Inverse folding.
């Protein structure tokens, strides 16, 4: 019982630490980004499906502009960057890495 309580308190402490260091921000992918910094990994799952070809190209290019070399872009399983952006390496289906 004591062990379980200790585990639960540790989990809560970790959660508070992580959430406390996360900044939540609403960004329109169709517009130039505000100064949001860079991201080692971007999850863009099932978002590109909303856009036509030209908009997809612009959105992906904008997103990749905030991903440093070696960073990752993950999209949905039914999506692909084929014909959208060829500057990243396809590591696995829907997983791309910036060289
Ligand atoms: C099908 S949901 C996918 C949500 C989540 N990524 C997932 O896989 O469960 C598509 C999301 O794309 C967001 N979205 C669509 N157009 C957008 C835009 N121009 N800028 C930012 N987000 C957008 C919607 O708000 C919605 O949350």
């Amino acid at each position: 019982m004591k062990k379980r309580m200790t585990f639960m308190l540790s989990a809560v402490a970790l959660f508070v630490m992580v959430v406390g260091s996360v900044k939540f921000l609403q960004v329109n992918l169709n517009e130039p980004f505000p100064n949001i910094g860079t991201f080692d990994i971007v999850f863009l799952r099932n978002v590109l499906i909303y856009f036509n070809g030209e908009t997809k190209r612009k959105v992906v290019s904008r997103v990749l502009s905030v991903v440093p070399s070696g960073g990752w872009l993950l999209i949905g399983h039914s999506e692909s960057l084929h014909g959208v952006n060829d500057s990243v390496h396809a590591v696995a289906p829907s997983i791309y890495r910036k060289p």
